[in-house]
Protein backbone atom coordinates (compact mmCIF):
# COMPACT_ATOMS: atom_id res chain seq x y z
CA UNK A 1 0.00 0.00 0.00
CA UNK A 2 1.20 3.50 -0.85
CA UNK A 3 -0.84 5.99 1.17
CA UNK A 4 -0.86 9.66 0.26
CA UNK A 5 -1.22 10.77 3.88
CA UNK A 6 -0.70 9.39 7.37
CA UNK A 7 -4.32 9.02 8.50
CA UNK A 8 -5.13 7.22 5.25
CA UNK A 9 -2.26 4.84 5.89
CA UNK A 10 -3.51 3.90 9.36
CA UNK A 11 -7.06 3.66 7.99
CA UNK A 12 -6.19 0.98 5.42
CA UNK A 13 -3.77 -0.72 7.83
CA UNK A 14 -6.69 -1.22 10.23
CA UNK A 15 -8.83 -2.73 7.47
CA UNK A 16 -6.10 -5.23 6.67
CA UNK A 17 -5.34 -6.03 10.32
CA UNK A 18 -9.01 -6.72 11.08
CA UNK A 19 -9.03 -9.09 8.11
CA UNK A 20 -6.26 -11.09 9.79
CA UNK A 21 -3.36 -9.85 7.68
CA UNK A 22 -0.04 -9.18 9.48
CA UNK A 23 0.59 -5.52 8.61
CA UNK A 24 3.05 -2.78 9.44
CA UNK A 25 2.80 0.94 8.75
CA UNK A 26 6.05 2.60 7.69
CA UNK A 27 6.60 6.35 7.94
CA UNK A 28 8.19 7.46 4.70
CA UNK A 29 10.37 5.20 2.58
CA UNK A 30 12.04 2.57 4.81
CA UNK A 31 15.79 2.22 4.55
CA UNK A 32 15.99 -1.47 5.41
CA UNK A 33 14.09 -4.66 4.66
CA UNK A 34 10.62 -5.52 5.92
CA UNK A 35 9.73 -8.49 8.09
CA UNK A 36 9.27 -11.33 5.57
CA UNK A 37 6.27 -12.62 7.56
CA UNK A 38 4.23 -9.50 6.86
CA UNK A 39 1.16 -9.93 4.70
CA UNK A 40 1.07 -6.24 3.84
CA UNK A 41 3.24 -3.17 4.18
CA UNK A 42 1.72 0.32 4.23
CA UNK A 43 4.11 3.13 3.29
CA UNK A 44 2.74 6.42 4.63
CA UNK A 45 3.69 9.45 2.56
CA UNK A 46 2.79 13.11 2.89
CA UNK A 47 2.14 13.46 -0.82
CA UNK A 48 -1.55 14.35 -1.07
CA UNK A 49 -0.90 18.09 -1.30
CA UNK A 50 2.75 18.02 -2.35
CA UNK A 51 3.81 19.40 -5.75
CA UNK A 52 2.95 16.85 -8.44
CA UNK A 53 6.56 16.01 -9.30
CA UNK A 54 7.40 15.41 -5.63
CA UNK A 55 4.33 13.21 -5.16
CA UNK A 56 5.29 11.10 -8.17
CA UNK A 57 8.91 10.78 -7.03
CA UNK A 58 7.97 9.71 -3.50
CA UNK A 59 5.33 7.27 -4.74
CA UNK A 60 7.74 5.67 -7.21
CA UNK A 61 10.31 5.23 -4.45
CA UNK A 62 7.68 3.61 -2.23
CA UNK A 63 6.60 1.34 -5.08
CA UNK A 64 10.18 0.26 -5.79
CA UNK A 65 10.79 -0.54 -2.11
CA UNK A 66 7.57 -2.55 -1.84
CA UNK A 67 8.34 -4.50 -5.00
CA UNK A 68 11.82 -5.22 -3.67
CA UNK A 69 10.19 -6.78 -0.57
CA UNK A 70 8.25 -9.14 -2.83
CA UNK A 71 4.94 -7.29 -3.04
CA UNK A 72 2.60 -8.94 -5.56
CA UNK A 73 0.08 -6.12 -5.70
CA UNK A 74 0.37 -2.34 -5.25
CA UNK A 75 -2.53 -0.24 -3.99
CA UNK A 76 -2.49 3.56 -4.14
CA UNK A 77 -4.47 4.50 -1.05
CA UNK A 78 -6.26 7.85 -1.42
CA UNK A 79 -8.87 9.57 0.70
CA UNK A 80 -12.42 8.26 0.52
CA UNK A 81 -13.37 11.78 -0.57
CA UNK A 82 -10.81 11.57 -3.41
CA UNK A 83 -9.02 14.72 -2.21
CA UNK A 84 -7.06 16.26 -5.06
CA UNK A 85 -6.93 19.30 -7.33
CA UNK A 86 -7.43 19.79 -11.05
CA UNK A 87 -3.72 19.03 -11.58
CA UNK A 88 -3.55 15.97 -9.33
CA UNK A 89 -2.08 14.34 -7.46
CA UNK A 90 -4.09 11.15 -7.88
CA UNK A 91 -4.10 10.95 -11.68
CA UNK A 92 -0.41 11.68 -12.33
CA UNK A 93 0.74 9.34 -9.54
CA UNK A 94 -1.56 6.57 -10.73
CA UNK A 95 -0.35 7.00 -14.32
CA UNK A 96 3.27 6.71 -13.19
CA UNK A 97 2.58 3.64 -11.04
CA UNK A 98 0.70 1.98 -13.90
CA UNK A 99 3.69 2.47 -16.16
CA UNK A 100 6.08 1.16 -13.49
CA UNK A 101 4.21 -2.11 -12.88
CA UNK A 102 2.95 -2.60 -16.44
CA UNK A 103 -0.71 -2.39 -15.45
CA UNK A 104 -3.58 -2.87 -17.86
CA UNK A 105 -6.93 -1.96 -16.30
CA UNK A 106 -6.63 -0.25 -12.89
CA UNK A 107 -9.65 -0.44 -10.60
CA UNK A 108 -10.39 2.92 -8.94
CA UNK A 109 -12.89 2.89 -6.06
CA UNK A 110 -12.77 5.35 -3.13
CA UNK A 111 -15.95 3.94 -1.54
CA UNK A 112 -16.01 3.35 2.23
CA UNK A 113 -19.66 2.54 3.07
CA UNK A 114 -19.07 2.19 6.81
CA UNK A 115 -18.19 5.89 6.88
CA UNK A 116 -20.90 6.89 4.43
CA UNK A 117 -18.80 7.06 1.25
CA UNK A 118 -20.32 5.35 -1.77
CA UNK A 119 -19.79 5.45 -5.51
CA UNK A 120 -22.85 5.23 -7.75
CA UNK A 121 -22.97 5.93 -11.48
CA UNK A 122 -19.40 7.12 -11.16
CA UNK A 123 -20.36 9.81 -8.64
CA UNK A 124 -19.00 9.94 -5.09
CA UNK A 125 -21.49 10.44 -2.27
CA UNK A 126 -20.91 11.31 1.39
CA UNK A 127 -23.99 10.00 3.14
CA UNK A 128 -26.92 11.18 1.05
CA UNK A 129 -25.04 14.15 -0.39
CA UNK A 130 -22.94 14.46 -3.50
CA UNK A 131 -19.28 15.03 -2.65
CA UNK A 132 -19.44 18.67 -3.73
CA UNK A 133 -22.35 19.29 -1.32
CA UNK A 134 -20.80 17.51 1.68
CA UNK A 135 -18.54 20.25 3.02
CA UNK A 136 -15.60 19.03 0.97
CA UNK A 137 -16.20 21.94 -1.38
CA UNK A 138 -14.76 24.12 1.42
CA UNK A 139 -11.63 22.06 2.08
CA UNK A 140 -8.77 24.58 2.53
CA UNK A 141 -6.24 22.60 0.45
CA UNK A 142 -8.18 20.26 -1.82
CA UNK A 143 -11.68 21.65 -2.35
CA UNK A 144 -13.79 19.05 -4.17
CA UNK A 145 -16.38 20.76 -6.36
CA UNK A 146 -17.23 17.86 -8.68
CA UNK A 147 -18.70 14.55 -7.52
CA UNK A 148 -18.11 12.76 -10.84
CA UNK A 149 -14.93 10.75 -10.18
CA UNK A 150 -14.63 9.94 -13.89
CA UNK A 151 -14.46 13.63 -14.74
CA UNK A 152 -12.13 14.48 -11.84
CA UNK A 153 -9.71 11.70 -12.76
CA UNK A 154 -10.02 12.41 -16.47
CA UNK A 155 -8.77 15.97 -15.91
CA UNK A 156 -5.68 14.63 -14.14
CA UNK A 157 -4.77 11.48 -16.09
CA UNK A 158 -3.47 10.75 -19.58
CA UNK A 159 -5.17 7.36 -19.58
CA UNK A 160 -8.64 6.41 -20.76
CA UNK A 161 -11.22 6.60 -17.95
CA UNK A 162 -13.79 3.79 -17.95
CA UNK A 163 -16.65 2.83 -15.62
CA UNK A 164 -18.23 -0.33 -14.21
CA UNK A 165 -21.76 0.40 -12.93
CA UNK A 166 -23.38 -0.96 -9.79
CA UNK A 167 -25.62 -3.33 -11.77
CA UNK A 168 -22.55 -5.11 -13.13
CA UNK A 169 -20.84 -5.19 -9.73
CA UNK A 170 -23.91 -6.89 -8.23
CA UNK A 171 -23.53 -9.70 -10.76
CA UNK A 172 -20.27 -10.77 -9.09
CA UNK A 173 -16.52 -11.06 -9.59
CA UNK A 174 -16.64 -12.59 -13.05
CA UNK A 175 -18.91 -9.86 -14.40
CA UNK A 176 -16.57 -7.17 -13.05
CA UNK A 177 -13.54 -8.85 -14.62
CA UNK A 178 -15.33 -9.09 -17.96
CA UNK A 179 -16.25 -5.38 -17.81
CA UNK A 180 -12.71 -4.14 -17.09
CA UNK A 181 -11.39 -2.23 -20.08
CA UNK A 182 -7.88 -2.37 -21.54
CA UNK A 183 -5.22 0.15 -20.49
CA UNK A 184 -7.64 2.35 -18.55
CA UNK A 185 -8.38 3.62 -15.10
CA UNK A 186 -11.76 2.06 -14.32
CA UNK A 187 -14.04 3.74 -11.80
CA UNK A 188 -16.07 0.94 -10.20
CA UNK A 189 -19.31 1.61 -8.32
CA UNK A 190 -19.66 0.36 -4.73
CA UNK A 191 -22.58 1.07 -2.41
CA UNK A 192 -22.13 -1.60 0.28
CA UNK A 193 -19.34 -3.71 1.75
CA UNK A 194 -20.60 -6.66 -0.29
CA UNK A 195 -19.75 -4.71 -3.44
CA UNK A 196 -16.21 -4.14 -2.19
CA UNK A 197 -15.82 -7.86 -1.44
CA UNK A 198 -16.82 -8.62 -5.05
CA UNK A 199 -14.40 -5.97 -6.31
CA UNK A 200 -11.66 -7.54 -4.19
CA UNK A 201 -12.31 -10.90 -5.80
CA UNK A 202 -12.17 -9.35 -9.26
CA UNK A 203 -8.89 -7.64 -8.36
CA UNK A 204 -7.03 -10.90 -7.72
CA UNK A 205 -3.93 -10.86 -9.90
CA UNK A 206 -4.17 -7.21 -10.94
CA UNK A 207 -0.83 -5.48 -10.27
CA UNK A 208 -2.31 -2.07 -9.33
CA UNK A 209 -5.45 -0.72 -7.65
CA UNK A 210 -6.52 2.67 -6.31
CA UNK A 211 -9.04 3.50 -3.63
CA UNK A 212 -9.93 4.32 -0.06
CA UNK A 213 -9.50 1.84 2.75
CA UNK A 214 -12.70 0.06 1.71
CA UNK A 215 -10.94 -1.34 -1.35
CA UNK A 216 -8.89 -3.54 0.98
CA UNK A 217 -11.94 -5.37 2.39
CA UNK A 218 -11.91 -8.03 -0.30
CA UNK A 219 -8.16 -8.44 -0.74
CA UNK A 220 -6.91 -10.48 2.28
CA UNK A 221 -9.20 -13.38 1.33
CA UNK A 222 -7.32 -13.66 -1.97
CA UNK A 223 -4.26 -14.60 0.09
CA UNK A 224 -6.02 -16.95 2.52
CA UNK A 225 -6.30 -14.66 5.57
CA UNK A 226 -9.28 -14.71 7.95
CA UNK A 227 -10.74 -11.97 10.16
CA UNK A 228 -9.27 -11.33 13.64
CA UNK A 229 -9.11 -8.53 16.22
CA UNK A 230 -5.76 -6.73 16.70
CA UNK A 231 -4.46 -6.88 20.28
CA UNK A 232 -3.78 -3.89 22.53
CA UNK A 233 -1.82 -3.41 25.76
CA UNK A 234 -3.33 -0.47 27.70
CA UNK A 235 -1.26 2.73 27.98
CA UNK A 236 -1.71 5.14 30.89
CA UNK A 237 -0.08 8.47 31.62
CA UNK A 238 -0.50 12.03 30.35
CA UNK A 239 -2.62 12.57 27.25
CA UNK A 240 -3.46 15.35 24.82
CA UNK A 241 -5.37 16.14 21.63
CA UNK A 242 -3.95 18.09 18.67
CA UNK A 243 -6.48 19.10 16.02
CA UNK A 244 -5.77 20.85 12.74
CA UNK A 245 -8.67 19.60 10.62
CA UNK A 246 -11.37 22.10 9.66
CA UNK A 247 -13.91 19.49 8.57
CA UNK A 248 -17.46 19.63 9.86
CA UNK A 249 -16.99 16.43 11.85
CA UNK A 250 -13.80 17.63 13.53
CA UNK A 251 -15.24 21.03 14.38
CA UNK A 252 -18.13 19.22 16.08
CA UNK A 253 -15.63 17.05 17.99
CA UNK A 254 -13.71 20.14 19.06
CA UNK A 255 -16.93 21.79 20.28
CA UNK A 256 -17.81 18.65 22.24
CA UNK A 257 -14.38 18.32 23.86
CA UNK A 258 -14.27 22.03 24.78
CA UNK A 259 -17.10 21.30 27.21
CA UNK A 260 -14.95 18.99 29.32
CA UNK A 261 -11.27 19.84 28.84
CA UNK A 262 -8.92 22.85 28.86
CA UNK A 263 -7.95 24.12 25.42
CA UNK A 264 -5.57 26.43 23.57
CA UNK A 265 -6.53 27.71 20.13
CA UNK A 266 -3.82 28.32 17.53
CA UNK A 267 -4.66 31.24 15.23
CA UNK A 268 -3.22 31.32 11.73
CA UNK A 269 -1.99 34.92 11.84
CA UNK A 270 -0.06 34.42 15.07
CA UNK A 271 1.37 31.11 13.83
CA UNK A 272 2.67 32.77 10.65
CA UNK A 273 4.13 35.61 12.71
CA UNK A 274 5.94 33.13 14.98
CA UNK A 275 4.08 34.25 18.09
CA UNK A 276 3.77 30.76 19.60
CA UNK A 277 6.45 29.08 21.73
CA UNK A 278 6.14 25.27 21.50
CA UNK A 279 8.03 24.85 24.78
CA UNK A 280 5.56 27.08 26.61
CA UNK A 281 2.57 25.27 25.07
CA UNK A 282 4.10 21.90 26.04
CA UNK A 283 4.53 23.16 29.61
CA UNK A 284 0.88 24.17 29.68
CA UNK A 285 -0.31 20.84 28.22
CA UNK A 286 1.56 18.75 30.78
CA UNK A 287 0.37 20.92 33.66
CA UNK A 288 -3.31 20.07 33.03
CA UNK A 289 -5.21 17.51 35.09
CA UNK A 290 -7.45 16.59 32.13
CA UNK A 291 -5.95 15.77 28.74
CA UNK A 292 -6.12 19.17 27.00
CA UNK A 293 -6.85 20.20 23.43
CA UNK A 294 -4.56 22.29 21.23
CA UNK A 295 -6.36 23.18 18.03
CA UNK A 296 -6.27 25.31 14.92
CA UNK A 297 -9.57 23.94 13.58
CA UNK A 298 -11.73 26.84 12.48
CA UNK A 299 -14.64 27.78 10.26
CA UNK A 300 -13.70 27.57 6.56
CA UNK A 301 -14.30 31.32 6.10
CA UNK A 302 -11.74 32.09 8.82
CA UNK A 303 -9.20 29.75 7.22
CA UNK A 304 -9.86 31.21 3.77
CA UNK A 305 -9.29 34.75 5.03
CA UNK A 306 -5.91 33.79 6.51
CA UNK A 307 -4.92 32.03 3.29
CA UNK A 308 -5.82 35.10 1.24
CA UNK A 309 -3.68 37.27 3.50
CA UNK A 310 -0.59 35.10 3.89
CA UNK A 311 -0.90 32.39 1.21
CA UNK A 312 -2.12 28.83 1.59
CA UNK A 313 1.32 27.21 1.81
CA UNK A 314 2.64 29.70 4.36
CA UNK A 315 -0.35 29.23 6.67
CA UNK A 316 -0.24 25.44 6.42
CA UNK A 317 3.52 25.34 6.90
CA UNK A 318 3.44 27.55 9.98
CA UNK A 319 0.71 25.58 11.74
CA UNK A 320 2.12 22.17 10.81
CA UNK A 321 5.60 23.24 11.88
CA UNK A 322 4.27 24.35 15.25
CA UNK A 323 2.37 21.10 15.79
CA UNK A 324 5.42 19.02 14.80
CA UNK A 325 7.60 20.90 17.29
CA UNK A 326 4.95 20.61 19.99
CA UNK A 327 4.54 16.84 19.50
CA UNK A 328 8.30 16.34 19.66
CA UNK A 329 8.54 18.23 22.95
CA UNK A 330 5.53 16.51 24.49
CA UNK A 331 6.87 13.03 23.71
CA UNK A 332 10.29 13.95 25.10
CA UNK A 333 8.68 15.12 28.35
CA UNK A 334 6.64 11.99 28.96
CA UNK A 335 3.35 12.32 27.10
CA UNK A 336 1.92 8.79 26.68
CA UNK A 337 -1.38 9.23 24.81
CA UNK A 338 -1.92 11.50 21.79
CA UNK A 339 -5.00 11.90 19.57
CA UNK A 340 -4.47 13.84 16.33
CA UNK A 341 -7.18 15.12 13.97
CA UNK A 342 -6.49 15.89 10.32
CA UNK A 343 -4.37 14.24 7.64
CA UNK A 344 -1.87 17.07 7.19
CA UNK A 345 -1.70 17.61 10.95
CA UNK A 346 -1.10 13.89 11.52
CA UNK A 347 1.72 13.91 8.99
CA UNK A 348 3.36 16.85 10.72
CA UNK A 349 2.98 15.27 14.16
CA UNK A 350 4.38 11.87 13.15
CA UNK A 351 7.37 13.47 11.46
CA UNK A 352 7.89 15.63 14.53
CA UNK A 353 7.93 12.49 16.66
CA UNK A 354 10.53 10.91 14.38
CA UNK A 355 8.49 7.69 14.20
CA UNK A 356 9.58 5.20 11.51
CA UNK A 357 7.15 2.30 12.03
CA UNK A 358 3.79 2.10 13.79
CA UNK A 359 2.17 -0.97 15.33
CA UNK A 360 -1.52 -1.33 14.51
CA UNK A 361 -4.02 -1.96 17.30
CA UNK A 362 -7.82 -2.22 17.48
CA UNK A 363 -10.20 0.38 16.11
CA UNK A 364 -11.09 3.56 17.94
CA UNK A 365 -13.66 4.35 15.23
CA UNK A 366 -14.33 3.25 11.69
CA UNK A 367 -11.11 3.90 9.78
CA UNK A 368 -9.13 4.93 12.88
CA UNK A 369 -6.96 2.37 14.73
CA UNK A 370 -5.11 2.79 17.97
CA UNK A 371 -1.39 2.67 17.21
CA UNK A 372 1.83 2.52 19.15
CA UNK A 373 5.17 4.19 18.54
CA UNK A 374 7.50 3.01 21.28
CA UNK A 375 5.89 4.01 24.59
CA UNK A 376 3.48 6.43 22.96
CA UNK A 377 -0.12 5.51 22.05
CA UNK A 378 -1.42 7.33 18.97
CA UNK A 379 -4.66 7.77 17.07
CA UNK A 380 -4.45 9.61 13.74
CA UNK A 381 -7.92 10.67 12.61
CA UNK A 382 -8.92 11.78 9.15
CA UNK A 383 -10.94 14.99 9.35
CA UNK A 384 -14.41 13.57 8.74
CA UNK A 385 -14.05 10.36 10.77
CA UNK A 386 -15.37 9.58 14.24
CA UNK A 387 -18.40 10.62 16.28
CA UNK A 388 -18.82 13.82 18.32
CA UNK A 389 -17.21 12.32 21.46
CA UNK A 390 -14.27 10.78 19.58
CA UNK A 391 -11.48 12.65 21.41
CA UNK A 392 -12.49 11.70 24.93
CA UNK A 393 -13.56 8.17 24.04
CA UNK A 394 -10.28 7.43 22.29
CA UNK A 395 -8.14 8.70 25.15
CA UNK A 396 -10.06 6.36 27.49
CA UNK A 397 -9.73 3.45 25.06
CA UNK A 398 -5.97 3.90 24.96
CA UNK A 399 -5.88 3.67 28.75
CA UNK A 400 -8.31 0.84 29.32
CA UNK A 401 -8.23 -1.15 26.08
CA UNK A 402 -12.04 -1.20 25.97
Write the layout of secondary structure elements.
Blueprint: E1 2-3, H1 6-18, E2 23-27, E3 40-44, H2 52-68, E4 74-77, H3 90-101, E5 106-109, E6 117-120, E7 123-126, E8 129-130, H4 149-156, E9 160-164, H5 166-169, H6 173-179, E10 184-188, H7 193-202, E11 208-211, E12 239-243, H8 248-258, E13 263-265, H9 268-272, H10 278-286, E14 293-295, H11 300-310, H12 312-332, E15 337-341, H13 343-353, E16 357-365, E17 368-373, E18 376-381, H14 390-400
Parallel strand pairs: 1-3, 1-4, 2-3, 4-11, 5-10, 5-11, 9-10, 12-14, 12-15, 13-14, 15-18
Antiparallel strand pairs: 2-16, 6-7, 7-8, 16-17, 17-18
In short:
This protein is α/β, with parallel strands linked by helices and 402 residues long. The chain is 37% helix and 20% strand. The protein has helices at 6-18, 52-68, 90-101, 149-156, 166-169, 173-179, 193-202, 248-258, 268-272, 278-286, 300-310, 312-332, 343-353, 390-400; strands at 2-3, 23-27, 40-44, 74-77, 106-109, 117-120, 123-126, 129-130, 160-164, 184-188, 208-211, 239-243, 263-265, 293-295, 337-341, 357-365, 368-373, 376-381.
Question: What does this molecule look like?
Answer:
A hairpin with a 2-residue loop joins strand 6 (117-120) and strand 7. The strands form two sheets. The chain has a 15-stranded mixed sheet, with helices on both faces. The protein has a three-stranded antiparallel sheet with strand order 6-7-8, with no helix packed on it. Helix 2 (52-68) runs parallel beside helix 3 (90-101) and helix 12 packs across helix 13. 37% of the residues lie in helices and 20% in strands. The chain has helices at residues 6-18, 52-68, 90-101, 149-156, 166-169, 173-179, 193-202, 248-258, 268-272, 278-286, 300-310, 312-332, 343-353, 390-400, and strands at residues 2-3, 23-27, 40-44, 74-77, 106-109, 117-120, 123-126, 129-130, 160-164, 184-188, 208-211, 239-243, 263-265, 293-295, 337-341, 357-365, 368-373, 376-381. The protein has 14 helices and 18 strands. The chain has 402 residues and is α/β, with parallel strands linked by helices.
